[in-house]
Amino acid sequence: MRPLRVCTVVGARPQLIKAAAVSAAFAEWNAAGNRPIAETIIHTGQHYDDAMSGVFFRQLGIPEPAANLGINGGSASGATAAMLSGLAAEFAARRPDAVLLYGDTTSTLAATIAAEQMRLPMAHVEAGPRMGNRDHPEEFNRIVADHAATLLFCPSGHAAANLRGEAVTGRIEMVGDVMFDAVRRHLPQARPVDIPPGFVLATIHRPQNTDRRERLAELMDGLGRLGRPVLFACHPRTAKALRQHGLAVPAAVRVTEPLDYFNLLGALQACAFVVTDSGGLPKEAFFLGKRSLTVSSETPWPELLEAGATRVVDADAAALGRNAEWAAQPLATAVAPFGNGHAGARIAELLAISL
Question: Tens place of pLDDT for every residue, the chain, 355 residues?
Fold first, then answer.
């Protein structure tokens, strides 16, 4: 059987976690004697330092990228243009049977355009979630990828319904969430964190919160109103913004560098709840039975709202304080909107039999 040649494009930390689960599923698929999937990974360099990228390749067993474009910094337009040029050259040289994309980053957008212009079939993992607000650049990126993709791998029924409502032309498949795969696979490797019990795990990184001083100041105030010690895993963009805005963190907040995946899982297991503007972290908290407070104007995950697993409080210090007691309550739910933790295996099968 001729192998299916797949070019996987990654660039940001969350994509590496998702790609790790799918690459592992590819290896298991191949070992079972099925039509082989020959995967080549191209890293755009969007997240470029060791804490945001390199450590994930080592920890999660992701195959080394065949190319790293080293593109980061500058404007979104400039990065997109540079990635588009670099990815087009890689695709032309490798002539894959399909391009595999993840999520909603600048890397996703550039890969979508490059693949579309070369008429290469695309498969989009985590297709279909919507914020309902185009002020988030991620919303545009995901919409473009969804409407160009040949195969749309949805993490939930809500996501699939969104795509049907938009009348996308690609094939919609509800496979489940590959982040659930990753949590299940790597939870035994979780590492304990050195912080008093009952702490809050916090992350803030989105431009809507870091670029505007008043929002970031409000969020720092809010972390001090939680009534608990806070472990603040600080993204490089946020650390830079705090310095530029001249803002200090409250006394109860312990600032660390971004956590590697094993330490992140350990922190999620031990924390009381999560405060974040991340798209993925509220789901990871949910998988481990923890609630979250989403410090954004919207969430792309109505599933979490319906399960009582998150509340959207935006950049509102008073709202963070008011909702801390609710967030610390145990999450008891039998709802499983994100599949069974075997999304990667289904993705491998669908790719091999469809392309």
Answer: 899 999 999 998 889 999 999 999 999 999 999 999 999 999 999 866 655 566 878 888 888 899 999 998 888 899 999 999 999 999 999 999 999 999 999 999 999 999 999 999 999 999 999 999 888 889 999 999 999 999 999 999 999 999 999 999 999 999 999 999 999 999 999 999 888 889 999 999 999 999 999 999 999 999 999 999 999 999 999 999 999 999 999 999 999 999 999 999 999 999 999 999 999 999 999 999 999 999 999 999 999 999 999 999 999 999 999 999 999 999 987 789 999 999 999 999 999 999 9
| Packing angle of the helix pair 13-31, 343-354 (nearest 10 deg) | 70
Domain 4-177+339-354 belongs in CATH node 3.30.70.20: no
For residues 311 and 323, give the distance between their C-alpha atoms in angstroms, rounded to a whole number. 8
CATH 3.30.230.10, domain 192-327, yes or no = no
10 and 19 in contact (C-beta within 8 Å)?
yes
The pTM is what?
0.95
Q: Which of 333, 60, 321, 326 is nearest to 179 (CA)?
A: 60
